[in-house]
Amino acid sequence: MGKLDKRRKEILRAIIQSHIDLNVPIGSMLITKRYPIGLSPATIRNTMAKLEEMGYITQPHTSAGRVPTEKGYKFYINTLMEERLLSFNFDLSKKLSSRLTIIRKDMNSLIKEAAKTLSSFSQYLAIATPLKTDNILLKRIKFIKYENKQILAVIISEEGVIKDKIIELDKIYSQKHLDSASHYLNSKFSGLTIKKVREKIAYQLYKEKSVCDQLIANLLYLCKDIVPLENDDLSLNSLSGTSNLTDFATMKQIKAILKAIEDKRFMLKLLNQISESQGTRVFVGMENIFPAMRELSMVVSTYNNKKFASGAIGIIGPTRMNYEKMIPIVDHTAKALTQILSESL
User: Fold this and answer.
1) Distance of CA 108 to the CA centre of its chain
2) Both 51 and 181 in a single domain?
């Protein structure tokens, strides 16, 4: 129903920003007090009626003010991003980068700490997916004697540890035997992508009769459960700030959020949407991803190591979150992660 002219855009922005700030339905008198628009309350009311017809705002109760709809929020966010109206806080970004640089450890710890830091800065729930491992190059597999028949199996890439697991063998082996087996498997797998390692393990198991050493045969069999699968990439690497949920979500929404995060189908839907475009994206009202989360929004950005792998990090908060502030925080966190991961290659 027509495009928004300058007046309608100005009033719509004023309604949305006021609702974000105050969390109440917004009336014409409030807009005249908060913004020097230079229009009478009657003119603003007429414009608000048009905006409601167009689906950008709605009136929750008779004689009440208006609140933004999902369509209104999407317009507002697109305007912020297109016109670069985002409030970039240099002091905040400097603190964020400093904290991430200080805590750089192995890859998984860094991503978990990044989510924790993002939650701390945003005061919302922060989520992070791990770097997709399929194209990561394997550096080595290491087996460490633990106790009795148990050993610790560690898979290491150029970026650090990507998987470790306690496994149990058929009998007790010395560390010397384990080192020998590691050396043999590394000679077969080192330098291959994780995807190729999976394929080669499957082939070696098919040809198992050609493997003379029983220890190596056993480890090959167990390795198929250690090497990360594609479906592992659908799980969250980190979830931080659940204590913040009570500040903006009902108990019903909190249950829906936690249920969605545990649901790999949800994560698949989410990651598919994120992968459609690089950079920072905003999902306003997440009903199309998970119906019970329709009153929540997510700001998410992709990060990578500029070589083989990429993941995503973001926040989940109320639809009326301060996008002007939150979008730059998420964007900067992803960029800082990319920089640190790239420098460690």
Assistant:
1) 14
2) no
